[in-house]
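lol so apparently i was supposed to do this last week
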Amino acid sequence: GFFDLEVADSLASTNSRLLEKSVQGAPHGSCVITEMQTAGRGRRGREWHANLGGSLTFSLLWRFNQGAGFLSGLSLAVGVALMRALNQAGVPGAGLKWPNDVLHQHRKLAGILIELQGDMLGPSAAVIGIGINLKLSSKVLNRIDQAVVDIHSIGGKVSERNLLLANILLHLADVLNEFDAGGFSILREEWLKYHAYQEKQVLLMLPDGNQHEGYLLDVADDGALLVRTAIGKQRFTSGEISLRTV
Ligand code: BTN
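anyway here it is w/ biotin bound
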């Protein structure tokens, strides 16, 4: 059925669990949710930390007829679905940081980890992992080395997490169908409305550790970031840079 839900008390990582299930043929729309991850994973090899019930952690499997090469803007599309659901839940003041963090006043409220299966041309599958901070314990807060915030501390209702999850899944289905039909380009204008750093000066961190300042101009139809730097207008994909506020 749709969505095919697995709910577990504890798992290493919902993404890891769903990647395994996907290889074994789990259907489109399969979803894994857990109260607690013991080895939650973030982007760029980072860890995702949360206490029991401290964050809403789940993953959704989405199968595409097109190849993984088509999926470059997917992580931005998922950010749009999260923003729609947070707005609907009345969580105020959230915005997106390219490529796909959800921020509240410069602090991270939610993260997205997308892992692709399949090759560039044939059918592909995406395991879309989402973590939303609900109510983090002070112990966990001390372990996290970046500025974070949770739903509880910005006036949202943690008791409505099941409703939030249901709404995110419904918005994800909408957004992913839109993406499947037209790519990121049809979601681009909506993404820009939520962009926290649109036309702002930021630091671009390169994987080699170098950093440059840049002015955020736009995102392209494939989700690439367009930046004005000292050497002119440049275009970056998510593997190439990460952003910091100046
Ligand atoms: C990031 O901001 O770096 C991405 C964080 C993604 C965390 C979620 S929690 C559910 C899913 N399972 C994981 O192991 N990670 C993602």
